[in-house]
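Re: that backbone. Tokens:
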């Protein structure tokens, strides 16, 4: 889906910008800081802003919205000042949210265009990219299946102002990058929104095929026959309870010039298009949310989709195992033993711990295809929601240095991720009496860690990071800078990570 919103650089003086609105942000905590752009706008409007700060209405508190109508001295019809919070807590992550919140706030009030003015320190390409990413992220709303839609309010154009003229070409390039990233994020969020009757494993593979064709990527979709030939017993065990056949989607990007012995990075994403829990069936309450259990897979496909256009210098692949988890007459049952592609035997204690089963074979297959580094993303455990709520992604991995590099990208991308332990003590908890391993932890607690340990059994010595996005892939309520529904979490981080290599 193409992004409708146009983002460009504005070079006119603030007072003659004729967009529907002008937006800037003000630092502060209890008292707004009236320097820089604020002082300039205060002068231009003949002193309309300072009195608001003096009276305590304008404080600079993060995401506080102060709206002036028909400000004198400005060609724009509205002036919006967004709180930026304390300067020492300010980074591109805040800037991204401020830009996004401004878009959603003004769009709700009928504005179709605005100019976003940055402070002098933020006149950099990286800031422009963050702002454009925030705008494109905030612009998204899904209203596909209402037959009677309200006339949509659309933001058509946003210009960025306050950037130095000499950096123009770098800033244009930064905005172009943000567009590629934002568009791929939307592509993933649309898929995550789809109900399971409209996005089966086969349909997911078809979307991946269309994407790969358009992006010029290699694709190989394994059907149930090839999956069986490869002896992916863990994936097949999950899929056997469903009338829908499974797929394994492999999308590959190769750089124009590949250096000898350079790394091959595989992005492996869980795509359970619906997780009923299988025979260990889930309660009815909120089960509809399990249509989003393919978020990790959508994320990884979106990442390679963007990378096809951004052209990193290393080889990349996405490996996405796709299946339903259903309690059909042929479904696997608690106590069943499955043999994974790697040859390891697995005692299936709980059929609802299916994500780790399908990832076991996908991680093994990625290594077989030549991956030297593995990153997986999965809505894997309810336990990560207990540990980190809906705030942080749980990030596991070895060696620590590899995990730290992913966390560094997360910081740059403004996506919250927190390192989780994966010490040897937890391995004991997935030992089985009758097979090599069991698919749930024995004993109490540490559910997201034993799940990660299960994956580690199939990664062996390959550097690996596992992102548990169960708490962060979906948002029940909208935020000022983001719609409710799929968040697109980890897409920006992983694109950033690939581009740094
Ligand atoms: N898809 C779920 C995890 C999940 C929970 C995703 C909440 C999004 C929101 C996963 O397959 C699952 O059911 N995990 C079980 C594992 C348990 C049976 C060991 C869980 O976390 O309860
Ligand atoms: Zn499950
Ligand atoms: Zn699941």
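Recovered sequence:
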């Amino acid at each position: 889906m193409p992004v409708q919103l146009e983002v460009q650089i504005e070079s006119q003086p603030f007072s003659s910008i004729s967009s529907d609105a002008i937006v800037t942000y003000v630092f502060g905590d209890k008292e707004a800081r009236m320097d820089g752009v604020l002082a300039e706008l205060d002068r231009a409007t003949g002193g309309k802003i300072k009195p608001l700060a003096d009276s305590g209405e304008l404080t600079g508190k993060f995401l506080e919205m102060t709206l002036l109508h028909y400000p004198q001295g400005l060609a724009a019809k509205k002036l919006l000042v967004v709180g930026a919070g304390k300067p020492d807590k300010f980074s591109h992550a805040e800037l991204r949210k401020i830009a996004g919140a401004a878009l959603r706030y003004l769009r709700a009030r009928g504005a179709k265009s605005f100019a976003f003015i940055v402070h002098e320190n933020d006149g950099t390409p990286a800031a422009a990219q963050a702002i454009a990413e925030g705008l494109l992220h905030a612009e998204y709303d899904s209203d596909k299946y209402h037959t009677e839609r309200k006339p949509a309010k659309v933001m058509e154009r946003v210009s960025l102002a306050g950037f130095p003229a000499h950096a123009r070409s770098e800033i244009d390039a930064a905005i172009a990058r943000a567009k590629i990233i934002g568009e791929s994020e939307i592509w993933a969020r649309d898929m995550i929104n789809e109900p399971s009757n409209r996005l089966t494993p086969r349909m997911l593979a078809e979307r991946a095929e269309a994407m790969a064709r358009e992006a010029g990527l290699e694709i190989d979709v394994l059907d149930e026959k090839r999956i069986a030939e490869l002896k992916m017993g863990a994936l097949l065990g999950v899929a056997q309870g469903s009338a829908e056949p499974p797929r394994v989607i492999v999308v590959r990007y190769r750089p124009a010039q590949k250096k000898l012995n350079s790394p091959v990075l595989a992005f492996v994403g869980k795509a359970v298009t619906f997780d009923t829990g299988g025979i260990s069936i889930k309660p009815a309450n909120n089960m509809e949310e399990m249509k989003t259990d393919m978020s990790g897979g959508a994320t990884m496909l979106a990442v390679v989709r963007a990378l096809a256009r951004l052209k990193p210098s290393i080889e990349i692949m996405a490996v996405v195992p796709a299946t339903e988890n259903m309690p059909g007459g042929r479904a696997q049952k608690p106590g069943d033993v499955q043999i994974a592609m790697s040859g390891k035997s697995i005692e299936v204690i709980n059929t609802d711990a299916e994500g780790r089963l399908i990832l076991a074979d996908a991680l093994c297959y990625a290594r077989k295809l030549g991956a030297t580094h593995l990153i997986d993303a999965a809505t894997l455990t309810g336990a990560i929601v207990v540990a980190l709520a809906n705030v942080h992604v749980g990030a596991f991995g070895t060696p620590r240095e590899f995990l730290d590099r992913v966390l560094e990208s997360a910081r740059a991308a403004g996506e919250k991720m927190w390192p989780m332990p994966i010490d040897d003590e937890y391995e004991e908890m997935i030992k089985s009496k009758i097979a090599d391993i069991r698919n749930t932890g024995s004993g109490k607690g540490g559910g997201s860690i034993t799940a990660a340990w299960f994956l580690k059994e199939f990664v062996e010595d390959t550097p690996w990071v596992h992102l548990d996005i169960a708490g962060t892939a979906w948002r029940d309520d909208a935020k000022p800078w983001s719609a409710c529904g799929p968040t697109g979490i980890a897409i920006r981080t992983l694109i950033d990570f690939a581009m740094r290599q």
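Residues 67 and 176 are 30 Å apart (CA to CA). The pocket of zinc ion (ligand 3) is lined by residues 272, 275, 293, 354-355 (CB under 6 Å).
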